[in-house]
Amino acid sequence: MPRSSAADAARTRAAIVERAVEVASVEGLEGVTIGRLARDLDMSKAGVVGGFGSKEALQLAALERAVEIFRHEVVDPGLAEAEGLPRLRAYGDAWIDYLRRDVFPGGCFLTSASSEFDGRSGPVRDVVDDALDLWRRALEGEAAIAIEAGDLPRDTDPADVAFAMLGAALALNQSRQLHRDRRATDRARRLMARALAG
Amino acid sequence: MPRSSAADAARTRAAIVERAVEVASVEGLEGVTIGRLARDLDMSKAGVVGGFGSKEALQLAALERAVEIFRHEVVDPGLAEAEGLPRLRAYGDAWIDYLRRDVFPGGCFLTSASSEFDGRSGPVRDVVDDALDLWRRALEGEAAIAIEAGDLPRDTDPADVAFAMLGAALALNQSRQLHRDRRATDRARRLMARALAG
User: Fold this and answer.
1) Which pTM was predicted?
2) ipTM for the complex?
């Protein structure tokens, strides 16, 4: 049998990461085990572990991919708009849309990972913390520009705007995932609009 | 050796449940295993499992205790106030205070359990769903009374008020637990006040 080419190896690695993201989204990152992925993908355990070396490396690869997806789905549509209030509104719309469309089958991957790892220490926790902190700061930065431009009241605290947007997204995620509440999307839209009304 | 009295058995059971709640709050309900609790409490596995029968029964007992604590910390202070807006404000204050004081070492137990189990099926998921649904309906009921009394604008949707309060609590929980952000308490207080301003 000929040895796999580098392209084959990259494709296999990508397939493992995609499956790890799906499993983690529904069952948590701790559900991502070498044995589970080997079964799901009909591969040997050695084949799965080969590209990563450890369960933690596999969790980190899944997390990295989830951050990439969030960036593509939520951040990029915002970056296409003018900075300040237009961009904040685009971020809010894309964030709600990302949750409404169940981009991850188990709801927001980063929210689940945050809840799962916030009480621990280690690289997985640090990556989640950094990713969500970066997002928070991006929102705060745009809010500051909106205030400077006079599109939000002078006395608005930019961090309060980011916090309110986060609240709307988290309430939507829980209402959809736990209660299967389809009307939550409209509630989140109204709450997001209110967060951006200053 | 004399056999344990019924009182001893109840005390042992309570100690196991308390430890299960602590472990689950930090590591998730899946972290609550018979072996882990036996080690932590210096008991035999048979001694731990004896009072419960299965890991799931132990998880359900921990969940029931967590709901009891939430009721004591958040619901009871509200029930002491007049219904409608005064009670909603008391609920909001107690909810934030419960998160600020880290009543559970790993943050809101029900939020963690929701995130951990929302993608699954079974009795643990059902109990979390029911408990949070009951809370949501209690908030909606008080909001409806506040609207009827003219303490919130006529055109307010009671479910929007409950949704906004949930958002403030979830944003506080994530900001404290993941980012260790001490200023989040004040942000949550402002956001909760806004949710109750109609």
Assistant:
1) 0.94
2) 0.94
